[in-house]
Specification:
Low-confidence stretches: 374-381
Radius of gyration: 22 Å
Oligomer: single chain
Strand content: 15-25%
Largest sheet: 5 strands, antiparallel
Structural class: alpha+beta
Length: 381
């Protein structure tokens, strides 16, 4: 927020102070007519709250902007949420103007999370993982790649590729075994766009949405339906989508097997006291990705320096390094942006050629469309 609106606040800060949050809450009360407060504790009853946002670094923001905050609302119906969303967007425009509405490297960190109360319905993670087109939702919101919004296949992809190495036809992951496999490898935690850890509390956290989508004109129903409809798919639809997913990963596995003889993992020299081992993955002696090992393996694609954030795949087992690189290749092969700027950047020419070959293989698979669900939503949010 601009300090001129809050004359008692001076200069940028590492983390929004309690007094600053109080000033923001006061501004929101004025512009929305809602009772915003800034409590000191995060153990909250439902309400409208302004809290410091720990995941932002205001010191890298333009001069004159002093802190980042998180806005929490109580549970509301979808129609109420739409009205509240509009009033918050208007208040942000009045209080802070252009900065929040620009899409750049700073605002790319800003996210908008929706918690969906399951109510009486059962949220089956396997159905979501089969039927939700997460990549399309993430590209629509310019939310991919983000370390805080990984698609679910980042959780089940490496185990599935390792399984297909022993069972190429996938006979042991079909039918009910497929759903059990997906459920056992579902993504939980704040790095996944669909955080299934919250199911224990009776709701699902969706993290696919960027700030521009919050401030824009796409309706909540239009944003939510493609991700919620899969939960009510019938068995025939689930079986068909399971076959589609298995086909995609069989093609990916076959593509990866042709690369494995040309891939190598080399660790760097260890100097001094370090908390992690670092290295690189090479294709034909050309570096394609950085690696870091600190109990889990993190793979970071080496991207084109001109633009774009690299794809990062954390929490990979050490013996799954090439499978992890294969998942990154799948992400890049499918990457398309609404702006039309093309796919994600790849720094290695050899890897770009191989990804183009994978993209051609993937044309054999029918695209996943919202109409595949063929059902009307039963959600009352």
């Amino acid at each position: 927020m601009r300090p001129s609106l809050f004359p008692d606040i001076d200069g940028p800060m590492d983390l929004a102070s309690h007094r600053y949050c109080q000033e923001v809450a006061s501004g929101l009360r004025l512009h929305t007519g809602l009772h915003w407060t800034a409590p000191r504790t995060t153990k909250l009853k439902p309400g409208f709250y302004v809290l410091p946002e720990y995941g932002l670094d205001p010191l890298d923001w333009p001069e004159g902007l002093v802190g980042g905050v998180e806005l929490l609302t109580p549970p509301v119906s979808i129609d109420e949420a739409e009205k509240i969303r509009g009033s918050i967007a208007s208040a942000i425009d009045a209080l802070d103007g252009w900065f929040n509405f620009e899409t750049d490297s700073r605002t790319a960190e800003f996210g908008w999370h929706i918690n969906v109360d399951a109510g009486e319905h059962r949220l089956d993670p396997a159905k979501f993982m089969m039927g939700a087109n997460e990549m399309e939702a993430l590209f629509l919101g310019c939310r991919f790649p983000s370390p805080y919004a990984a698609p679910q296949r980042h959780a089940f992809g490496v185990p599935l590729l390792k399984h297909l190495g022993k069972d190429p036809e996938g006979r042991l992951v079909q039918g009910v075994y497929w759903e059990n496999f997906l459920s056992a490898h579902r993504g939980e935690g704040k790095r996944y766009a669909a955080n299934f850890a919250k199911l224990a509390s009776g709701y699902l956290e969706l993290r696919h949405y960027s700030t521009p989508l919050f401030l824009g004109e796409v309706s909540l129903r239009a944003l939510l339906n493609p991700l919620l409809l899969p939960f009510q798919m019938d068995h025939a639809t689930a079986d068909r989508l399971a076959e589609r997913h298995l086909h995609v990963f069989q093609l990916l596995d076959a593509w990866l097997q042709t690369l494995v003889p040309r891939l190598s993992l080399r660790w760097g020299a260890k100097t001094g006291m370090v908390c992690a081992e670092t290295g690189h993955i090479f294709l034909d002696d050309e570096p394609v990705a950085r690696t870091m090992w600190n109990g889990d393996l993190t793979i970071t694609l080496l991207g084109n320096r001109q633009w774009g954030e690299p794809v990062v795949l954390p929490c990979v087992p050490l013996d799954g390094v090439f499978e992890g690189l294969g998942l990154i290749a799948l992400d890049v092969a499918e990457s398309r942006y609404p702006s039309g700027r093309g796919g994600l950047p790849v720094g290695s020419p050899a890897f770009r050629r191989e990804i183009a070959r994978l993209r051609k293989q993937l044309t054999k698979v029918e695209p996943l469309r919202p109409s595949d669900m063929g059902l009307a939503s039963w959600w009352s949010i």
